[in-house]
Amino acid sequence: MMDTVIFSLAGRPVLLIDLISSVLGLTCVFLAGRNSKYNFWVGYLYTASLFLLFLHRDLYASLLLQPVSLVINMVGHYRWTHPRPEESADGKTLNVSSLSWIERVFCVVGVLVIALLWGWSLDRLFPADPHPYLDSCVTVLILTAQLLSALKKWDCWVAWLLVNLTQIALHLSVGNVLMSIVSALYLVNGLWSLVTWVKLYRKQK
After folding, report:
1. C-beta pairs of 102-111 under 8 Å, 24+ apart in sequence
2. Which of 80, 96, 121, 186 is the most buried (most CB within 10 A)?
3. What is the three-class DSSP state of 82?
């Protein structure tokens, strides 16, 4: 059923799983950008659809990411809805916060080192992966963005912008035109969401 071709785009077939993942993903990030806790409920479905999508595309680093993403989604769901008193203005919703410059440097170095090591391992464990280092870079960037989002750091949107740019290149490289377009839409939403969260952060300080 998931292999059902819905239509063709730029000479490439668009499968049902491609379309489902695209709709769920766009809905999830739109809700997150609007500071809505309901993004997590959509996120659970999105994680399941991505697992099937990456399995079909032989993108194994991204596939292995999904169980981890599920755990991060659950942690973020709890943190957003169960803030400590000093972390919330109304006692119900987690405030937007920011990383320190030291934490930002640590994140950048960590992403580069882990992506390099993961790409090297993936190249040897899963030779069918067409772009192990690019695939791994996307994987580590997504994990970083998800962790920061779970903690409600506005810096997460900077990480998501990098994810979107990298994913556009990754999907184009395997001929996934639809997901490349969707990633471009994520990029637009990420810019809008970054501005929105920075405004919330300054307002809540």
Report:
1. 104/155, 107/144, 107/148, 107/155, 107/159, 110/144, 111/137, 111/140, 111/141, 111/144
2. 186
3. coil
pLDDT higher than threshold 80 for residue 101? yes
Place of tokens 């599920």: 70
Rounded to the nearest angstrom, the gap between the alpha carbon of residue 70 and the centroid of all alpha carbons in its chain is 11
Amino acid at 72: I
Nearest to 152 by CA among 98, 102, 188: 98
Domain boundaries, given as residue ranges, for the chain: 5-204
> Which two three-digit tokens encode residue 51?
């697992």
For residue 200, what are its two tokens?
Answer: 């919330």
Alpha helices in the chain (DSSP H): 16-33, 39-57, 60-81, 101-125, 132-150, 156-173, 177-204
What is the CB neighbour count within 10 angstroms for residue 3?
Answer: 9
CA distances from 16 to 38, 79, 105, 129 (A): 24, 33, 40, 22
Helix axes 16-33, 177-204, angle to 10 degrees: 10
pLDDT, tens digit, 9 for 90 and up, residues 156-177: 999 999 988 888 887 777 777 7
Q: In 10 A of CB 148, how many CB atoms?
A: 23
How many degrees, rounded to 5, is the angle at CA 96 between CA 92 and CA 98? 145
Residues 161, 5 contacting (CB under 8 angstroms)? no
